[in-house]
TrEMBL record:
Catalyzes the reduction of 1-pyrroline-5-carboxylate (PCA) to L-proline. The lineage of its organism: Bacteria, Pseudomonadati, Pseudomonadota, Betaproteobacteria, Rhodocyclales. Belongs to the pyrroline-5-carboxylate reductase family. This is Pyrroline-5-carboxylate reductase. It catalyses: L-proline + NADP(+) = (S)-1-pyrroline-5-carboxylate + NADPH + 2 H(+); L-proline + NAD(+) = (S)-1-pyrroline-5-carboxylate + NADH + 2 H(+). The gene is proC. Residues 159-263 form the Pyrroline-5-carboxylate reductase dimerisation domain. Its EC number is 1.5.1.2. It is found in: Cytoplasm. Pathway: Amino-acid biosynthesis; L-proline biosynthesis; L-proline from L-glutamate 5-semialdehyde: step 1/1.
Length: 270
């Protein structure tokens, strides 16, 4: 399967790195990337063909992954308008709706919306997928194959739910990194040096996530098992509750979802 990426930034590099690690041949992967520095990094790191603008070779792919920023998409896809045929086009852009992308592409409808996340780089991504009704089983399989190479996938039945996936797992790694930063800073405030505090925070998040993934029990049950009555964890969790932690998370995720919808509405007017 030949895959071309439009845009070779953070997320495309995570996907390409993941695909290469999973055994996809670099010769089957291409990138169209404006920046010369970006192109030479992708060529150097992964051995993929990287070009500045679309040419026939870049167009001759089975799957075209649109990986530029939402605000760059309309201009970036213009050179392809009316030149696509059987390619499955997978947009990973936050917010952008398939109807708008289809219009910018001159009416191409073999479109899939995907929302991956950066752990794709280590094969631990999670991607939400939604396909236009005109995409058959083969097209859905092709899109899922790309994303399954870098982690797991879930299909959602409504396109609007991709904004929810974006808010939970697309942006989610940043929330977890932020929590790690805060836990490390809290450790440093107790007198640990930076390296020790980071190790304590990182290994805790890694171990807890692994335990939760491996367990049949709900995270709430695992949490209760750490929480001795009248003990230290109970004191910390009471402090979280007093500060409204669940509501803080709910509001943050709602803000991300609303921003996705807003981006789609604003940029779709063009
Ligand atoms: N980062 C993440 O965790 C995730 C991002 N996404 C989505 O992925 C997309 C890319 O995000 P991200 O990788 O972070 O962004 P980046 O800005 O890192 O990557 C976009 C790349 O595309 C290049 N580019 C811009 N215009 C063109 C063009 N016309 N032709 C070719 N290349 C072009 C940019 O160059 P230049 O910098 O010079 O403009 C840049 O290198 C976004 O739509 C985002 O919503 C989805 C899931 C997770
Ligand atoms: O912040 C963003 O808009 C993108 C989409 C999900 C993660 N990064």
């Amino acid at each position: 399967m030949k895959i071309t990426f439009l845009g070779g930034g953070n997320m495309a590099a995570a996907l390409i790195g993941g695909l290469v690690k999973q055994g996809f041949a670099a010769a089957d992967l291409q990138v169209v990337e404006l920046s010369a520095e970006g192109r030479s990094k992708l060529q150097g790191d992964f051995g993929v063909r990287a070009v500045e603008a679309f040419d026939e070779q870049a167009l001759a792919c089975d799957v075209l992954v649109l990986a530029v920023k939402p605000q760059q998409m309309k201009v970036a896809v213009a050179p392809m308008a009316g030149r696509l045929d059987q390619q499955i086009v997978v947009s990973i852009a936050a917010g952008l709706r398939l109807a708008d992308i289809s219009r910018w592409l001159g009416g191409h409808t073999r479109l899939v919306r995907a929302m991956p996340n950066t752990p794709a780089l280590i094969g631990a991504g999670i991607t939400g997928l939604y396909a236009d009704a005109s995409v058959g089983a083969e097209g859905r399989e092709a899109a899922a194959r790309v994303l399954n190479a870098v982690g797991s996938t879930v299909w959602v039945p409504e396109e609007a739910q991709i904004d929810g996936v974006t808010a939970v797992s697309g942006s989610g790694p940043a929330y977890v990194f932020h929590f790690i930063e805060c836990l490390q800073a809290a450790g440093e405030s107790l007198g640990f040096d930076e390296a020790t505090a980071r190790k304590l925070a990182l290994e805790t998040v890694l171990g807890a996530a692994r335990l939760a993934v491996d367990s049949d029990e709900a995270p709430a049950v695992l949490r209760e098992r750490v929480t001795s009555k009248g003990g230290t964890t109970a004191a910390a969790l009471a402090s979280f509750a007093a500060d409204g932690f669940p509501a803080i998370v709910t509001r943050a995720v709602a803000a991300a979802e609303a921003r996705g919808r807003e981006l789609g509405e604003q940029l779709g007017q063009d």
